[in-house]
Design brief:
With about 200 residues, this protein is α/β, with parallel strands linked by helices. About 45% of the residues lie in helices and about 10% in strands. The protein has helices at about 5-15, 25-35, 40-55, 70-75, 90-100, 125-135, 150-160, 185-195, and strands at about 55, 65, 80-85, 105, 140, 165-170, 195-200. The N and C termini lie far apart (about 65 Å).
């Protein structure tokens, strides 16, 4: 006997595909929306559609934006001499919360992970090299996660940038190995930025 209508099951399945959402939470979210006025579901649907239709990559740093360039790249008060290289847009959010970094960013769109079929060509590394060639950049701060994939990506970027005679730094230790930047507390992340070290 079928207890849950197919359309309800479909939404539960879609919610369950989201990171951090298990079957029970997916059910709670779905039944919550059923209890709310139809406008709540419509607003949620419109926001999801708008997310895919209105968001694009910044033409400079490859972060998400709803315009041609993101707010950070458009901010004339930022230090244009330094670029912080991160794996994901959420890493930019985490670093910005510290208030310790006043430079620009470059979002790679992931990290090198052969097991997942992600190589250097799938990331925005060529765009980073192009920025260095055309800009007046003095320092690259590599802020990929301290995981095997993050370290591999860091080493690859370092090798790509060595011919450009530019200072390359890496976030200092303090962020736990195997952790993600988005889960690091603001004090730890702030100290890691302040105590970054030059790669040899």
């Amino acid at each position: 006997m079928k207890i849950i209508p197919k359309s309800v099951e479909n939404l539960i399945e879609e919610f369950a595909k989201l990171p951090g959402i298990g079957p029970k939470t997916a059910q709670r979210l779905t039944f919550y929306l059923l209890r709310k006025p139809a406008k709540s579901s419509e607003d949620l649907g419109k926001a999801a559609i708008s997310l895919k239709n209105d968001i694009q990559n910044c033409v400079i740093c490859c972060n998400y934006t709803d315009g041609e360039t993101c707010d950070v790249c458009s901010d004339k008060s930022r230090d244009t001499d330094i670029i912080c290289v991160v794996g994901e847009p959420l890493d930019v959010v985490a670093i910005e919360k510290t208030g310790s970094f006043k430079g620009l960013y470059h979002v790679l769109g992931g990290v090198i992970s052969p097991i997942d079929g992600i190589g250097p060509d799938e990331l925005y590394i060529a765009e980073l090299v192009k920025r260095i060639k055309t800009g007046n950049i003095k320092e690259i701060l590599i802020a990929t996660n301290p995981t095997i994939e993050g370290e591999t990506t860091s080493l690859y970027i370092q090798k790509q940038l060595l011919p450009h005679n530019i200072q390359i730094t890496r976030l200092a230790h303090g962020i736990p190995i195997g952790g993600d930047l988005e889960y690091a507390d603001e004090i730890t992340l702030s100290r890691a930025i302040e105590n970054r070290q030059k790669l040899k």
